[in-house]
Design brief:
By secondary structure, the protein is mainly α. Helices cover 72% and strands 0% of the residues. It has 6 helices and no strands. The chain is rod-shaped, with a radius of gyration of 25 Å. It starts with a helix and ends with a helix. The N terminus is likely disordered.
Length: 210
């Protein structure tokens, strides 16, 4: 076995792992979008019906009501704690007349759903682009592996120097590829966190409508 064979096998395994990763997710979702690398089923947009059993939010112009738009802006700020969000919604609801509570809180939910779902959609697109880039990297590694195999058949000194340079480059590219693979798990948690946040806000808002 040549000294370069373990590196070749390692890189081949990495490429195969990348192509096999989506198999853990829902098969129908992968058929629709083979670039989705996460274990959770791909759902493009969040439907209000999955979180909300109150009045319909379809077509509601929540931005036209300034206090609602202001509250939505605060509730959708990154890093806002559940405690702070719950307090903000409660304070808003407390200042409403009984007749206004249900319609205005419905507007608030419509706003947070629209804003957070759009943010989530951007995250999904970013994850897909990341996965596509990894696939391109794997393809490039495959081409360089083919080149390495060809050089191993050449006993010349020039080929030996080229193999050494290629091995060094492949080692670096393998490290970058591996580090990027480790990041996929974290990226996949980001839309889940947003979904959980949206679910909390839906429950909190609904609980104040009675």
């Amino acid at each position: 076995m040549t000294p370069f064979r373990p590196l070749i096998l390692t890189l081949c395994a990495l490429a195969l792992a990348l192509t096999a990763a989506p198999a853990a997710a829902d098969e129908d979702a992968q058929a629709a979008d083979p670039d989705w690398p996460c274990d959770q089923i791909l759902v493009q947009r969040i439907s209000a019906a999955t979180l909300w059993d109150g009045p319909s939010v379809d077509g509601l112009a929540w931005r036209e009501t300034a206090p609602v738009a202001d509250l939505v802006g605060r509730l959708t700020q990154p890093g806002l704690s559940e405690e702070a969000a719950g307090s903000a919604v409660a304070a808003f609801a407390q200042g409403l007349a009984p007749a206004d509570k249900a319609p205005l809180l419905t507007l608030v939910f419509a706003g947070v759903l629209e804003v957070l779902d759009q943010e989530r959609a951007q995250q999904l697109d970013g994850i897909r682009r990341y996965s596509q880039d990894q696939a391109r990297r794997a393809e490039a590694l495959g081409l360089e592996l083919d080149q390495m195999v060809a050089l191993e058949r050449d006993p010349s000194e020039a080929a030996a120097k080229e193999r050494a340079a290629l091995k060094e480059r492949l080692t670096l590219e393998e490290r970058v590829f591996d580090e990027r693979e480790k990041s996929i798990g974290f990226l996949c948690t980001r839309p889940v966190v947003l979904e959980q946040r949206l679910g909390f806000l839906a429950r909190t808002i609904a609980g104040l409508m009675d």
